[in-house]
Amino acid sequence: MRLPVQVLTICTASLAVGLSLLAIRGGPRPTPAPGAEVGVCSAPSAIEKAANQWISLDEAHGLWSTPGVVFVDCRGPADFDTGHIASAISLPSNSAEIPEGLFAILAHAQTIVAYCNASSGCASSLRLAERLHGLGLRDVRILTGGLPGWLERSFPAESGPCRQCPAESAP
Length: 171
What we know:
Blueprint: H1 2-25, H2 46-49, E1 54-55, H3 57-63, E2 69-73, H4 77-82, E3 84-85, E4 89-90, H5 100-107, E5 111-115, H6 123-134, E6 140-143, H7 146-152, E7 157-158
Parallel strand pairs: 1-6, 2-4, 2-5, 5-6
Antiparallel strand pairs: 3-7
């Protein structure tokens, strides 16, 4: 009787090790059929799918001086200093971290409008909006037309460093 118990113990242990390795490594991955097109998934992100996340130039201009609305320029500091939407804050989309003081401003905003230099489909604005949305900020919009559209309509703009940014987050 001792041998069957040992065999059962070894089989159980082997099964447990196999299941553990499967959980760590993952199950078998399907391979594409010969000749099938293989590529990167181009499904739209949650922000891209939500039509209400985009804001028109006119609507954004109407909100521009509204308390609780913050415009966020996602370009680099040099571009920001050259010119930006008046009273916007600078938060480059490639920033590793969002400084605490700047995050506090964003967390208290009712609406955040992100923009960049592209007049259509700005990837930087999308990335920043998704990042802010992922941090729990709910009403994050992307400016259709970006800074070029804003300037084209002669809406309020300024140059120089960020006046609204807390000292530790100034670019």
